[in-house]
Input
Amino acid sequence: MIEVNAPATMSDVARVAGVSTATVSRVVNGHYGVSARTIAQVRSAIEQLGYESSLVATSLRRSRTNVLGLVTHSFQSYTAEVLKGAMKALSRSGFDLIIYANSDLYGSYSEGWEKRHIARLSGTLTDGCIVVTPWGEVQSRTPIVAIDPVRGSTAPSVTADNLAGATTAVEHLLSLGHRRIGFIAGRSSLASAWSREEGYRAALTSADIPVDPTLIGEGDFNPESATPLARALLRRTDPPTAIFAASDGMALKVLEVAAELGLSVPGDLSVVGFDNIPESALTEPGLTTVDQSMYQLGYEAARMLKSLVTDEWEGPRQVVLPTSLVVRGSSAPPRSTARG
Amino acid sequence: MIEVNAPATMSDVARVAGVSTATVSRVVNGHYGVSARTIAQVRSAIEQLGYESSLVATSLRRSRTNVLGLVTHSFQSYTAEVLKGAMKALSRSGFDLIIYANSDLYGSYSEGWEKRHIARLSGTLTDGCIVVTPWGEVQSRTPIVAIDPVRGSTAPSVTADNLAGATTAVEHLLSLGHRRIGFIAGRSSLASAWSREEGYRAALTSADIPVDPTLIGEGDFNPESATPLARALLRRTDPPTAIFAASDGMALKVLEVAAELGLSVPGDLSVVGFDNIPESALTEPGLTTVDQSMYQLGYEAARMLKSLVTDEWEGPRQVVLPTSLVVRGSSAPPRSTARG
DNA sequence: CCTGGAAACGTAACCGATAACGATTGCAGT
DNA sequence: ACTGCAATCGTTATCGGTTACGTTTCCAGG
Output
């Protein structure tokens, strides 16, 4: 009679198989020095007890665990994309993935969450970590790859080419004839937000259009932060004919505000976002945006981390992935194409 | 000179503070029996070394870890909703969350993944686990809560009221005058799929309409599985005037097929889904569907698991959450309301 | 028969932290 | 001064698994 609720530890297997735990370990790990007969006995006992090695105990003793960690501040829809990409990269690689989330920081501004999360995991559990949009510089004795790092970070990272993407987006609006283009920025400490604003400025400057600071709203990537900023921009006596938002989430809020103010898109206002989240394809009109595949970011980050852990990484430690402009219905020439 | 790369273990702290590891442990855990002066010394040493307790070592020794696990077969957009809900429920509860994903099973049919995942975590790492749409019966010595369990499962679980939701959906179509209503089913082993089909049958039977088996397509919740089934249904000489799909993902594919065949929705065909995923609100026309808040499911599952772990759970161990019909543009009376 | 060496296997230390337990100290009560 | 109790802190077993090391077994070669 087998206790179904029993923990089924390695010593249980050893007892049933009539050998020592050392031998069981050798069988489990496929090490040399066990006779075929003993292996069979041990395997049988493992089968019989439904034994599974404890991740915890193994990781405590071993230096390598073949488990990679991923820490994130919150779960958005793009987080799922990142996870899908990471899982794809780790598919049949022998590496498992653990995502760690601390309940204490939910919804609250909690400086330093990355460090705490990583410290918890990186002790012995994981061989390395992916950090999704850290708020600060991250360090650990095990390898770390940041997705969308903070400005000036020198740690290994994967980022979309935010500068080029934003430049292209604004150039698109310029080519349509827009001259007064508003901008809603993201969290300024993040490199992505900074680059996107930089692209906005660069495109305007290249077109010999002075940057008007009053046309820039300081959002924080949180969609809700865009609503009041969009209202302020669109209620001006001289409203912009187009608004470029640093994220699709914020751009969708701009669309809402436009509808609320009775402005037609793209007739009265063109809107361009950044990210290309699934929802952007499904609005009416569809949102013109810059595609950065979060799936791809997750994929590359996991691939890079895996290589760093196994010490096989060759290429640069700061990967920049290309972006592409996705033109949909939300952008069109301004109603009165007043050219200088 | 402090080694930044050093592990910074508890014995390091003990050495620096000039006390034993036991005392450090007492300080860390706020236990009784340490003088104020010693506490200050230890805290100082912790600060100095940047010490963080190892999750692994702690969980190995302790019976309680205050970490809950969540295992899922894959990451979909709804998974993010579940995670958000679970995080909300665990907010400031002292419980952290670990999501474990095995790379080997990505994209492959891997029977028994829940058991392996749970065994890895449940050894000592977590105090309990949430299992998202398990494919089989799950067991563990630590508490388990299943979201959307298999049929006949007696384990603690949280489910949407699929039967009532599906019944309401079909009744909605019936009240619009539809009499030939197609159905695209989900993975039949899951309780949710079974209940939704049951609701479809019940509603028809209540309306004295015989169930036509040829109007039922056997999907598996995977959106792609719906495409050929929808084509088969709509290319019939006597096509249904409405199709009820067991999931929004599949319903959206039905919309695609309808467009492909030149059928207008809702003019030529009404479509109703189930789940109310974000995309459903943004299609043109909007998808009429049954709302089951995955966020709510995640929230309730985490709340229940937390209570089970702390032994405070009072209510029933099988929670059923209400659903609600969300009527959008994809459902309308059939073009020719031919009544029997 | 004796020896060498490899194969096979057990013993025990160890990973980092916790907690039961014992030992020491301080202080109040008598 | 002696007893008793509480406060404080160190020692050590323990969690489950890994591995260095030691021991035993066995067989080939001399």
User: Anything to note?
Assistant: The longest strand of chain B covers residues 96-101.
